[in-house]
Amino acid sequence: MVVELTAVRKRFGDVEALRGVDLTIGGGEVVALLGPNGAGKTTAISLMLGLRRPTSGRARLLGLDPTDRRARSRCGAMLQESGVSGALTVREAVALFGAYYPEPLATDRVLALAGLAEVARSRVGTLSSGQRQRVFFAIAVCGNPDVLFLDEPTAAMDVEGRRVFLDTLRGLAADGRTIVLTTHHLEEADALAGRIVVVDHGVVVADAAPAEIKACIGTKRVSFRAADAAEVSRLDGLPVAHVTVDGGRVTFVTSEPEAVLRALFERHVPIRDLEVTGATLEQAFLTLTGRPPDTR
Amino acid sequence: MSRGERASVAPLGRMLLAQTRSQVRILVRTPAFSVTSLLLPIVLFTFFGLPFAHLTRHDAVSAGVYLLASFGAYAVGSVMVYAFGVGVALERGMRVDALVRASPLPPALYMLAKVGTAMLFACAALVLLFAYGALMGGVHQPLGVWLTVIVRLLAGAVPFIALGLSIGYLAGPGAAPAVANFVYLPMAFASGIFLPLDRLPSAVQTVAPYLPMHHYAQLAWSAIGSGSEPMAASVVWLAGYSVLFFAVAVLAFRREERARFA
After folding, report:
1. Could you say which DSSP state residue A80 is in?
2. Distance between CA atoms of A217 and B73, rounded to whole angstroms?
3. Cβ density class A2-30: b for 16+ within 10 Å, e for less
4. Model's pTM, two decimal places?
5. Residues of chain B contacting A102 with CB distance shorter than 8 Å
6. Cβ–Cβ under 8 Å, residues A130 and A146
7. What is the per-residue pLDDT across B193-228, written as a single tens digit (0 to 9) for each?
8. A230: domain range?
9. Considering the domain boundaries, does residue A11 fall inside one?
């Protein structure tokens, strides 16, 4: 096993960030930890990497203590709260971290992989936040790691940057690497991962293939006004995962919006002001957990 | 990118070399540090040392030699307090430590590279200062004497590394330079580094024998035949201050550990 969390709890003062998590990740898996801010995703990654210690329970990395140098020599990490001295050039920073690993990739290759060839001679301190994010990615892969931990890797990226980045990750996964990433974008998790672990309030609320998760939480919302909204919301036989009524507006969360609309029209339900949009993660959480994600 | 068998960890020598090289680059490219530690001692010596360099002290030692030794002690202490104090505070501020922690670099090597880099800078500062004194003030001593001063000052710099680490872990990145200045400069003055003790206020003269800088400078003064206490006494004082400052640094480090990496 690459990652093993066994009955892991983590408490920060009065806040219990993880409340009993069991999670194993095998070699070559691409796993997305999906959840809203404050769900415990970053804490889980910190425990896997040995940056923090569990309050109770056990964390193992590649069968070793996560702080063991042999384990770390096979891992690369991209963290949310981290930095590199701004006085080093991009090339120098990547080469420095490469020297920590037994068999690093050639620096030029890493720079090309991360899309940094053009700014290789620039000081890290002069880069934009998107470019800096790519430097952190380069540092994560420079050691030719078997396991990659990426905490919110696409947070500072634009749409195009995100697309290129996900393509690069797919290439790395195709080499047989294990990738563990956190995100709060369902589409991102779906596009990349073979397995989605949904985390909320410090517990794993779902752990399945993306198709199953999508089917269970719905990916579209069908929203409209109806004269008798409450009655419409109680209609039987609609393929919906979750229903909310807000004033005169009914919102169905569903993975089959066309079927929902067909059923509504067949029953001659008068609707106005129709909207069909992608479901937000908040709605997905409502369907999974019956309550909105924590907003602390 | 084969997934096959390979060495389990990187050679420590390679890590240390790469880490030291990058530390040197970072410090050279931080003028607030490099100018302060390499040029400030020379500037201060120009004002406080050169005018008196031709005089002879009451103990028959050349005032120029005595002052170069004093400013040498100031220079090395300054490199240590700023490299560790300001350097560590800045790294904490930029969160450089988080990525390094997740990497396979052993923390001891990280520290060792910092010490090695600071020693290189201290050595450079002394060579520049002594060369400047010889060229501009005609202050000469046998090479062996200068080498003794350099070796003693480098070896005795431990309490200032510990003082720097305390500042680095206690102060924020914005406050650290001010704290380092506020602690180090008055201590240097009060220890008789820039002006002879008998020219300072009597209250300062009373305090001076208890200050780490005073005993540190004794290492250099005794090498040129102008010391006022046995070497063993200086070493004991410096060891005591090392223990004290390291204890403070360790407490501050643990506080930070609990907050960020517990």
Report:
1. S
2. 69
3. bbbbeebebeeeeebbbeebebebeebbb
4. 0.85
5. 6-10
6. no
7. 888 888 888 998 999 999 999 999 999 999 998 888
8. 220-278
9. yes
